[in-house]
Amino acid sequence: MVECERCHRKFVSYAALSQHFDTKHQNAQRPQTLDRELAAERELDTYKTTVHYAQGPSNTKLAAFLLILIIAAGVIGYVALTPREAGGSILGVGSTAPNFTLQDVAGGTFTLSDYQGKSNVLLLFNEGLSCQPCLQQMHDLDGLNAQLSGMNVLVVSVTPDSVDQLRGWMGASGPQYGKVLSDPGLLAFSLYHPVGTGGSMMTHTFILINRAGMVIWRQDYGPNSMYVQNTDILAAVTKALGM
């Protein structure tokens, strides 16, 4: 509060005091300090206004940036956890299948390019021994032997387990028709980019490669629907091959 020197009325600002003095005491001598204080008050108001407008857009930009981060995190989480076709994957339908050579648990090695021009290959990337649904999936695929053989499709499962780790299970419960490959160095995993890697993959990734060496179907299942029914696999493979 500021006070009029003549009538001792109080005012909230020097601007209000100045207006009062010019109206009520126009014939009196104006106090020397009034104009100085009024100028200082106006300068302070100008500074506050400038700071307000300078900070306002920055706060708005910060809020917008944080909102974008939240939305982006939600989208990434949804994409990572939702089963989907691989049209947007690193290696999707229409891609040339990268060649690789891995140890076959049944003995010898498997080289993908050896089957080009001869057979279609259905790759199944999974977690192997650390995942019971994965073992069940590899075992149950034998139920499609007749149908897949009729379509000239070879099933090849790829796990991150070592050959020594897989041999006991392979002899007792492993598939009789398909092949099971050991990929402890994640060579094939890194080429085909299933969702996640190794023990943290939490998915089954099916990739169908035709005799020309092209990817013609891919599906990443998981983490909530890892085991896939044979009927669903057969329907997808039949459709991809145009049969």
Keywords:
243 residues; alpha+beta; Glutaredoxin; 2 domains; eight-stranded mixed β-sheet; two-stranded antiparallel sheet; 7 helices; 10 strands; rod-shaped
In short:
The chain is 43% helix and 18% strand. The chain is α+β, with helices and mostly antiparallel strands.
Q: Explain this structure to me?
A:
The protein is an alpha+beta fold. The chain folds into two domains: 2-77; 84-240, Glutaredoxin (3-Layer(aba) Sandwich), CATH 3.40.30.10. The protein is built from seven helices and ten strands. It has helices spanning 14-24, 32-81, 132-140, 145-150, 163-173, 187-192, 230-240; strands spanning 2-3, 10-11, 84-85, 101-104, 109-111, 120-125, 153-159, 179-182, 204-209, 215-221. Strands 3-10-9-6-7-8-4-5 form an eight-stranded mixed sheet. A two-stranded antiparallel ribbon has the order 1-2. Strand 7, helix 5 and strand 8 (179-182) form a beta-alpha-beta unit. Helix 1 (14-24) packs antiparallel against helix 2. The radius of gyration is 37 Å and the shape is rod-shaped. Mean pLDDT is 79; it is low at 77-89.
